[in-house]
Amino acid sequence: MAKILLVEDNEMNRDMLSRRLQRRGHDVVVAPDGEQGVAMARAESPALVLMDMSLPGIDGWEATRLLKADAATRGTPVIALTAHAMAGDREKCLAAGCDDFDTKPVDFERLLGKIQALLARPAAS
Amino acid sequence: MAKVRITKAQLAAEVASLRRSRQRAATRAERLAQQLTGATAGRRQAEAALAEALERQTATAAILRAISRSPTDIRPVLETIVEHAGRVCGASDAIVFLLEGDGLVRAAHRGPVPITERDLSLPIGRDIPSGVAVLECRTVHVEDIQATSEFPRGREIAERQGFRTSVSVPLAREGAALGALLIRRAEVRPFTPEQIALLETFADQAVIAIENVRLFNELRDRTGELQRSVEQLTALGEVGQAVSSSLELETVLTTIVARAVQLSGLDGGSIHEYDDEAQEFTLRASLNTDVGVEERRATRLRRGEGAVGRTAVTLQPVQVADITVEGAYESRHRETLLQAGVRALLAVPILREGRLIGSLIVSRNGPGEFPPETVQLLTTFAAQSALAIQNARLFQQLEVANRHKSAFLASMSHELRTPLNAIIGYSEMLQEEATDLGQQGMVPDLGKINTAGKYLLELINTILDLSKIEAGKMELYLERFPVATLVEEIGALIQPLADRRGNSFVTWCAPEAGEMRADQTKVRQVLFNLLSNACKFTEGGIVSLAVRPEEAPEPRAPWMVFEVTDTGIGMTEEQVGRLFQEFSQAEASTARRYGGTGLGLALSRRLCRMMVGEVAVRSKPGRGSTFAARLPVEAEDHSAAGTGVD
């Protein structure tokens, strides 16, 4: 399957989500904050990034903007994960360049569906 | 008003009596004329009597004219009286004195005898004839002032002014004299009883004229007072309205200052709020016309400083009749006020339950004390200000408390959600792993952990939504979407819930429903809430969702009606009444039996109201319930509609 970068600061969420993705056959790399997330995206060239938005230091929005500004990572789809119903989150995420958006706690099947959809998309877009 | 009617009646009676006496005089003159017809002397006498009668008649008519022409001013009437009295009675001159305090003040004078400056006002006493006339309320005829020792001061005056004979008639009203009508002759020549009687008639007319004017002025004053009272009431009403309708403190206080200044006819005013801890005043409102506002705002008056500061010490109204007087007004605002031309100040404490919370101050550009009415009026306005300030303070506290509550809820929700994510996620994962490892026995228990976690999460999300709506932080994301698609999607979500209790689930969407513009997520949330409730309280029955457009009463745009019907346990009227209250279910035992917090309906209604819609309910115990959510087909952005703390 595909290599997925999970950027998430909460250790339990990071562990749980990465294990579940691995159970479904994905290769998962993780980063605990925005700065390392951007570095990992450059170093590992994942097929997709799951980006938590409220991160310490460089937050998810900023990290996404950096990824989308860099020619090397611009093509990598980013799914934003945010806390429930923060006003305007969806719009803010899309404005930052995220390709899709989901709320935490994730409905795992739904998230898998979104991942599949983005991975099936031609990489050039 | 009653008094005026009496006066008019008196006047009429007087006119009638004058007419009668005129007739009598005419008759007498006629009789005299008849008696003396033929005799030259007799004729002359008759002619004289006739002339006299005519002259009296003319005088009376002139006086009556003066009375009717001058209802508010006594002077023209008195002038007319002295003019005619002197001539008709054959005197050198005539004077009207009016009693003012302990003195007789000359009010009108006609004739060649001069009145020396010092005698324009005479101390009343029995040593002058007019003094006796006023004090004893009787006519005093002095045939020769130099021949009697009865009036020593009168004698001096007579000598000074040069007259000998006089008659003083009191201007009597209800047994007391208002003054005296005096006629004098330079030579010693007593007045005839007819002349004296005539003079008394003139005096009566003067009294009527004086009374008339007095009553007229009294009436005018009363009317004015009434007018002022009405104005005051209107202003107080306006202020009261401002106090209760506006929590914008400065607006209310500015209204109060403006009305207070306007009603008391003053030049400026302001309201200062008192800070108990700092012991100083802050300027809160002042008139546009007020000068030096910025300087005064910057310099906060301290307790005891100036008129405002002194109200903090006395808790009573404080007046400064003239701030230019050295030592009368000690304040850092003094220079500013002096430059602005302010002379007099009146400050009234604004008290709330005996404690000072501010001060209302008005200023006048002329020196002098403020009348008690103004002080009273200002005290009333101060009471209104107290209410306004108190309201504003309470509102501020409420706002702070509300913000704390919202912040608390938001952070609590966040803190609770993070571990819940782990509980829900791990239990789900473990269910899959247990299946993979052939440990099916653990799956139901892991499922219970998962369900409990999801229930808690739903509860937290609902609380957070409610607190967001209350804090006005919930926003609408309006989009256009096909209603049938929404119904289909909701149906798919609800079907498993309906199945769980053996309910059949039916959806129907009117073909003409088409599209609507709304916040789709919130519409979904509302429908999910209503439908999951219906499934929860129905067993082996029918749950349905019917959607159709409906004309709304003018001027509203058409509704989209979402009707959720069940054949479940239903509710009594009383239960329906409590339904939308937060944390309320129809019965406490219901919560234990069916689960749920009762927050769902409260939230659904709030969400509908945000979209300018409503949720209505019909229900019968044992027969089921119908919840109808009505939402505008075309929602407008009214995010503020959800802001109310209702």
Describe what this molecule looks like in 3D.
The complex is a heterodimer of chains A (125) and B (646). With 125 residues, chain A is an alpha/beta fold. Helix content of chain A is 44%, strand content 19%. Chain A is built from five helices and five strands. Chain A has a five-stranded parallel sheet, sandwiched between helices. In chain A, strand 3, helix 3 and strand 4 form a beta-alpha-beta unit. Chain A is globular. The two termini of chain A are 20 Å apart. Chain B is α+β, with helices and mostly antiparallel strands and 646 residues long. In chain B, strand 7 and strand 8 form a beta hairpin. The interface between A and B is medium-sized, with 19 and 23 residues.
**Shape descriptor of chain A:** globular
Residue share in helix of chain A: 40-55%
Order of adjacent strands in the largest pleated sheet of chain B: 3-2-1-6-5-4
Largest sheet, spatial ordering of strands of chain A: 2-1-3-4-5
What is the helix tally of chain B? Answer: 17
Oligomer: heterodimer
| Strand elements of chain B, count | 18
Shape of chain B: elongated
Please give the radius of gyration of chain A in angstroms: 13 Å
Please report the distance between the alpha carbons of the first and last residues of chain A.
Answer: 20 Å
Note poorly predicted spans of chain B. 639-646
